[in-house]
Amino acid sequence: MYTTDPEVQQTWLFYIYAILAGNSVLIYDHIVTLPQEVAFIWRRPKALSAILFLLNRYVALLSNICSLVTDFIPDSDESCSKYLLYRELAIIIQAMVVCIIMAIRTYALYGCSKRLLTWMVIVMTALAIVACAGTFGQYSGDVKILQEVGCNAAISKMVAARIGLAWVALSVFDLFIFVLTMYRTYKINSLLRLSLITGKDIIDVIFRDGAMFFGVMTLFNITNILTFYIGPVGLRGSLATFTSCMSVTLISRLMLNLHQTIDTGIFSTPAQDDGPSLPILTTRVDVESTVSSHYW
Fold first, then answer.
1. Cα(27)–Cα(106) distance, rounded to whole angstroms?
2. Could you tell me the pTM of the whole model?
3. 191-223, pLDDT tens digit by residue?
4. 296 with 201: CB under 8 angstroms?
5. CB 108 within 8 A of CB 283
6. CA 159 – CA 163 distance, rounded (Å)
7. Residues 117, 107: contact at Cβ < 8 Å?
8. Do 142 and 158 touch, CB atoms closer than 8 A?
9. HEC states along 194-234?
């Protein structure tokens, strides 16, 4: 601790505790699920699903460990500014990987509907522009480095509102994917009840994990967004790292559940569409025979 001001001390402690909590969950979950990762990812051919899983997991793990070390090292304003830019880049890259995984899973669930893919690309592009403009626009605004509390920044209300808008865009995308997933799983379950095809297990996994991901992340995203808009200066954005860690952890669990539920030969080889060759998540394999004639 580098200051005797009680208010600054409390701000610094909350900020550090939030970062430690997020990283603890991320690292603990990595250790707990490592046997499943070895069994269902490393011992199988690296299809697109496996590559995205590893990218999501290890980019987040390495970048958060580097950030964690830097948070406890006093440094100059110039170095801290560069570190803060790196931290924002790391968070947005992690969010992009999670969004891509969710989009591909939804695309596969809809039987590789080209119309859905077009709409998802449009929505993702628009929200990505909003998120990048809000996140990286802060460096032309009022940002003050808090030298006495490590590499942390006190941001103005205007800058906080812009960064908060990036998290709002991410929440909108989560809602978009959640609605699409719930609608499709409902339709597929309706079809399965009228047929003798057995594919309900994987659909139940998708429904359960999709609902859990959206519910938990909505809670964390709202709390994080509120820190930008109504939080005191030192606490604005203090839950960003925690929220990002939770997102990475939950999507890793979701993907491991899919790999564990689907037959071993399926997730080792990506399915192919009738059109141009494109590897997709193995979710499609179990449901395509049921819904191929019911494209969205």
1. 28
2. 0.78
3. 666 554 444 566 777 777 788 888 899 999 999
4. no
5. yes
6. 6
7. yes
8. yes
9. CCCCCCHHHHHHHHHHHHHHHHHHHHHHHHHHHHHHHCCHH
